[in-house]
């Protein structure tokens, strides 16, 4: 259903008349959404912002944190930006990115596959609303290898 979801989400954006200059993907889950939206909306300027918040199923850090490299605000200036993510759960990650963009861009809107009722951000574009925990094919299985932080090897 993911392909259908992204295509329908893109159609909603197109029907609204919003033509983003840049799609800003929130990594990791937003990478897949942004790629699909980029193709469907014919937007080739895709950027990524890395945000760490979820550490496990329904487990989070106290606050979301942007990880380097942080997008250069100059590259976003005077642009219409579409922030893409897979789920607006608490909305804290989207709020962090939205607030970062709002200071530098002409306009910022958000698009997600799923939005939950407790989200701090009411996304302009949502495929479905739900209260359920969402398992995507790319995140339901544990990693096949764990990333080792440099300097911690024995």
Automatic annotation (TrEMBL):
What are the UniProt keywords, alphabetically? Glycosyltransferase, Transferase
A Gene Ontology molecular function term of the record: glycosyltransferase activity
Under Pfam families, the record lists: Pribosyltran
Gene3D superfamilies (UniProt xref)? 3.40.50.2020
Q: Phosphoribosyltransferase domain: which residues?
A: 5-141
**Domain of life per record:** Bacteria
The UniProt entry, under PANTHER family, shows: HYPOXANTHINE PHOSPHORIBOSYLTRANSFERASE, HYPOXANTHINE-GUANINE PHOSPHORIBOSYLTRANSFERASE
Protein name according to UniProt: Phosphoribosyltransferase
